Amino acid sequence: MKRNIKVERLNQRPLEQQEIELVERKGIGHPDSVADGLAESISRALCQEYLDRFGAVLHHNTDKTQIVAGRSKPAFGGGEVICPLYILLTGRATRVFKEEEIPVDTIAIKAARKLLVESLSNLDVNNHVILDAKIGMGSSDLRDVFGRKVPSANDTSFGVGYAPLSQTENIVYNTERELMNLKKSIPAIGEDIKVMGMRQGDEINLTIACALVDRYVANMKEYADTKREIVEHVIDFAKQFTSRRVFAQMNVADNIEEGSVYITVTGTSAEMGDDGAVGRGNRANGLITPNRPMSLEATCGKNPINHVGKIYNLLSIEAAKQIAAEVQGIEEVYIKILSQIGKPIDEPHIASVQIVPKEGVDIKSLQDGATEILDEWLGSIPKLQQMLFRGELSTY
Amino acid sequence: MKRNIKVERLNQRPLEQQEIELVERKGIGHPDSVADGLAESISRALCQEYLDRFGAVLHHNTDKTQIVAGRSKPAFGGGEVICPLYILLTGRATRVFKEEEIPVDTIAIKAARKLLVESLSNLDVNNHVILDAKIGMGSSDLRDVFGRKVPSANDTSFGVGYAPLSQTENIVYNTERELMNLKKSIPAIGEDIKVMGMRQGDEINLTIACALVDRYVANMKEYADTKREIVEHVIDFAKQFTSRRVFAQMNVADNIEEGSVYITVTGTSAEMGDDGAVGRGNRANGLITPNRPMSLEATCGKNPINHVGKIYNLLSIEAAKQIAAEVQGIEEVYIKILSQIGKPIDEPHIASVQIVPKEGVDIKSLQDGATEILDEWLGSIPKLQQMLFRGELSTY
Amino acid sequence: MKRNIKVERLNQRPLEQQEIELVERKGIGHPDSVADGLAESISRALCQEYLDRFGAVLHHNTDKTQIVAGRSKPAFGGGEVICPLYILLTGRATRVFKEEEIPVDTIAIKAARKLLVESLSNLDVNNHVILDAKIGMGSSDLRDVFGRKVPSANDTSFGVGYAPLSQTENIVYNTERELMNLKKSIPAIGEDIKVMGMRQGDEINLTIACALVDRYVANMKEYADTKREIVEHVIDFAKQFTSRRVFAQMNVADNIEEGSVYITVTGTSAEMGDDGAVGRGNRANGLITPNRPMSLEATCGKNPINHVGKIYNLLSIEAAKQIAAEVQGIEEVYIKILSQIGKPIDEPHIASVQIVPKEGVDIKSLQDGATEILDEWLGSIPKLQQMLFRGELSTY
Amino acid sequence: MKRNIKVERLNQRPLEQQEIELVERKGIGHPDSVADGLAESISRALCQEYLDRFGAVLHHNTDKTQIVAGRSKPAFGGGEVICPLYILLTGRATRVFKEEEIPVDTIAIKAARKLLVESLSNLDVNNHVILDAKIGMGSSDLRDVFGRKVPSANDTSFGVGYAPLSQTENIVYNTERELMNLKKSIPAIGEDIKVMGMRQGDEINLTIACALVDRYVANMKEYADTKREIVEHVIDFAKQFTSRRVFAQMNVADNIEEGSVYITVTGTSAEMGDDGAVGRGNRANGLITPNRPMSLEATCGKNPINHVGKIYNLLSIEAAKQIAAEVQGIEEVYIKILSQIGKPIDEPHIASVQIVPKEGVDIKSLQDGATEILDEWLGSIPKLQQMLFRGELSTY
């Protein structure tokens, strides 16, 4: 079998040299990210349960969690949640296999509670959340599950990936990660963070929204001080990724005179008016990048066995990273992989590699290396699946 | 006020000349599109109600509808729906204004029923759907609503648009539209269609998934005949958009020998296992285009007054179309507009226009024309809003 | 087999001769009655479906419907429903039998819609109701269903019945029925009626609550006129049942001066604040009678095959009626039948008949007749079931 | 003001001397009792919150909780819950008062979790329950709340009570209570108990259903032993209440040969197929007594301020107890109190006292004492309310 891999030169100016660049990351406590996290954690828990019981992962897709915002009344020193968040876990999963019933809903709820505790440290999961589940019946065919064959693609769809990250992308991604570290010393930092990066030539502007947690902020002065401290930290932190000038602002809609600032009881805006849904936030690489090709397939919650919308996105990213790192002479590499429903997942309809070579580099000199790496990855989907089971691949 | 509009040359090979191109469109009966349609129709109904009662559109966002799939048993000649679809309408809307209560849920349900009837002609809305609503309270500030001022951006986010469509894009988009026409003579065509277009050099491959409606298909032979007829029609139809070779396949996972084919009772896969959610399908221009910049903001269901995620996406598309049509010498034009929360929506943080000029054309000769058109559109947001109220802008 | 039937003299003054008597009836549009009606109509529809498909009624119990009230703004001439009623249909039913799936939810929803239309003529079922269903899986054992044996009691519980009705009971019951007739000429009469009858010696006081329908009442004067007309009609109507003095009042909490009267958009208080549940309203004979023995088993929605809570209540009533009618010398007869789980339903643990004989009548002269009739009924449970399938027995 | 209290002789044989008597009690873990408990605990928590915030109890009624059964797979030594129970808390409550928002849903959920933990010690509230809330808006009128006036009856309805308990009633009630004690030494006893007592002449038969908890029962032999131990304990225990012969059976539907016995994971049948609802189980005195007058008003969850369905039931029971205890010469006393909507709750439409005097006692000698005690209670409704706030009155 020879895979349909096409490597082509992409004749465009590398993003780093373009005038304008937009990059966004939603933090792990953003309502859309929480929905993503729930979907993925439920899928992982189901994988583990299926493996434990049957030695194989059965059919499931839990990629449609919906968070309906609550209602709260934050106040310096500590406010209250008036109406709990309503979270609907949906999707489908194999409920019966070899005449054994699998407690799908119980597993889903357990996994969801765990994720909520991890992602939203100030949320009282017992009393501030209504956790509902409507998980339908999926079915798994015995032959498919225990056959030796490579699974067939569940759908005709595609995944995309690219490498390396630009400076702005690195900054945006890592700023959110850093704030989660900083939270240890500044507990007022809530997990609901949005970092919007806009590079205009050699100026990088970061607009950060961060839900501060009311019980850790005594008054308006502390609020303003905390904000200043965070902004200064971020600007300083960003310097390791760029020599460009970095500016940052936080919670720009605040009106301190009128007493209108961004505080929350729980650290997430889902407590008051902001709904969340799977697949509406970060792409599988943790970023939203309108200057880059993106897939609209939600990665989170999909089964890692035959759902190409998940597998091809993650595989494209990993392969692109490796190509960019190991094949010399590459400025940027973009991968798109298209499946055809019913065909083996390791034989995509087409796998397109587009490369922006470094100046003076001939695309021909790069084709073999790139092809080989991607081919290797396509042949190693089970390895990728193992990484997913073990939680080694982040998906949002 | 001078708007921050930057026009830059995009130094890349036009998509039409690249080797590989992927394009997808989900038809109006695809679960994700139905969710989009519901979200948008509810927003429109609310806009109309608010305008009728108060002369102004009040705050709302209804962009989080969730469709949980049902369970069905299709059969040639007519099967049955075992478990109804569950549809959860969520979001928030102003429920009380000037001490008057607005029947938000009743309006939402009425609009949702209407959309379902229009989008899924074979669905029995009375008995095959559980229509639930959890729409929270939004609030509208009297000064904001009736002030003379331009509304402020609700968030820091961006919209993107481009023009013109490529051949493949045109084919993919119009194929689905054409099948909705063809439905008049072939009633077995369900509204749940997915057209995946893959262009490799000068070959365009269309992979069509189309849920046939069981009551209009007597047996396996009729099924095969209908499929053949549709595929032939599509190939013929596509010729008006390209001189490239066009191939098409439909329902490729069918196994006619084993009797496993894609028929449905209602014309949508949501009847059996396929969930749907807002913002997971087509972008505002009706396509999914990984080779193009895309926004992840769901356009459907957002309020058209201050939600930049909606306004900037639609505005970028319209402006790009006009620039491509009226400014001579343009191969491709890409627009990205970034807001900053709290700032007037007609004064974006940045509006970036990237142009791939026709060969030999100097970007300088295009800048004034492009700037002027985009500036004009940014100054005409109320006009765009009117188009939305009147249903003149399609959003998915 | 000799059934354990005990006939005993009840040494008490007949209710008609006691000083005080309380009787209540909730009309068919009262939220609790609507819940009862939904439960029963779903059970009937399932029975019919099971009979059509398999020739036998399979296991089900749908006796737990819950109505969560909506929110409305009635107004003379026609108001509006602000938030729809939420109705949750629950219970369990056999979903798969002989490898055939039964569309339980679809059947339930269809039956529920029909009942709502019949019971609440002014309710817009499409837009004023959210109809949800969470019907669990029941299971039916092949041997039980098609065995020749009498079914076994599903539980240890009892049913009660008595006859004849007192004057006050007759008046209360028939007043509500008559208002449903009167509705043809006075369309403002809503189906949500509550008739409370209190007899003190020889005075019977009726307190009627009746939700008038706003669109048929132009103004306060019409409201007052309609009320007067209804009250006069009721007093006149009641005379056929008694020679005692009858008084009646309607909507006594009205405050016409302050403009606070009992009008509704839909004819039921469930539109605004009054929830409803199965088994909380009328007993199986259509009345609530604290002066009489009552069972707390909800009759509505239970399966008529082996649920003694349903069968024994209905059977007791029918047998009591027949005994009172056919055995000479009886003032009052009370029947209580107790099952034991797992025993054949036609062999109750005990069937107790208590008789208040007419003056001078010896209980011994009544025992054989009463025993025979009750024994006959216990042997004719299949006949009773047929009456239920055909809708000939009212249950609330 | 002279209250309309009528004391009349009830000319009937005391229940203790009648041939047949039926009595039932559902234990605190029975699905209907759990629903009752939830409803009442939420009302209590709201009362406390309203008192703390405003010094007065605001309008609410939370008497419509619905429990939809889950699905489980019990097994000796410990099985698992497959699908969690779904619990819907409904009703209405004042959400805003004096411009302050009260976190009604959060309070309800917190109270519900606490009740579940207390009532079902083997239920994993975090993972085996979906706790949903749809609590509507109630409204409280400032004048009503802080006026000096006695509250007006919310409805035209009645309460009933009687005293003393018969031997069988005492046995049935206390058997369940005793099993909750015995649970300390026999942890396999689940809280879902149903005790059905049937007295036929001088034989009292107890039929006990008790959900044993699987993790505390190693095998069938232990099951049988445990059952035997419980039955023996109960028979012995009952002797303190009667000199009649007492028989007892437990879990009579067990078929030990076929391995079909009554074990559960959580101690309640709600884990598998048995739904529960408020007001469907015990009356306010903790019993179901078809030989006694009963009210169908659910006592649990109703507001203790003006809901006569709650107040009059509890007051009738307390007054009857006191009359039976303090007025000499009484065999049985029955009280029925009827309100009229809008009238002060301490001035019922009628309060009827029916007394079965001891042999040879003239009713006239009892009338003053009975009237005085009931009049005193009607004048002491605030005292009764205080007892409810403090949880001193059991309601199911």
UniProtKB/TrEMBL annotation, chains A, B, C, D:
Binding sites annotated in the UniProt record for ATP: G136, M137, G138, S139, S140, D141
Pathways involved: Amino-acid biosynthesis; S-adenosyl-L-methionine biosynthesis; S-adenosyl-L-methionine from L-methionine: step 1/1
Catalytic reactions of this protein: L-methionine + ATP + H2O = S-adenosyl-L-methionine + phosphate + diphosphate
Origin superkingdom: Archaea
Broad class of enzyme this protein falls into: transferase
GO molecular function: ATP binding; magnesium ion binding; methionine adenosyltransferase activity
Keywords: ATP-binding, Magnesium, Nucleotide-binding, One-carbon metabolism, Transferase
Cofactor(s) listed: Mg(2+)
HAMAP family: S_AdoMet_synth2
Cross-referenced NCBIfam families: PRK04439.1-3, PRK04439.1-5
Role of this protein: Catalyzes the formation of S-adenosylmethionine from methionine and ATP.
PANTHER family, sorted: S-ADENOSYLMETHIONINE SYNTHASE
Entry protein name: S-adenosylmethionine synthase
